[in-house]
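Explain my protein.
***
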Amino acid sequence: MHNNHENKEVFSKRVRAGKRTYFFDVKATRGNDYYITITESKKKFDDGNYVKHKIFLYKEDFNKFMDAFTETVNHVKSELMPEYDYEEFQRHDDEDE
């Protein structure tokens, strides 16, 4: 349905997270519609190649996704691990976050 030849990237945000990097990309279709891809990329130690996992998120699901994501993170932070310091791994060199 979507391929790199049809769709152009209009916005990108990179989040470095330890041995992983997450990419949040907004892409445009030929019909001027937009969707988001979320990609997790991590380097394999045995051969140095990167393993990527990608999620496509379409505009009609943005609010449902955000609500579920926020509720899930808040549950972990407040109910399961309220004493954990979630700022512990925040890096000063992540100016692109």
Observations:
- The first strand starts at residue 8 and ends at 17.
- Residues 62-80 form the longest helix (19 residues).
- The chain has one helix and four strands.
- Confidence is low (pLDDT under 50) at residues 1-5, 93-97.
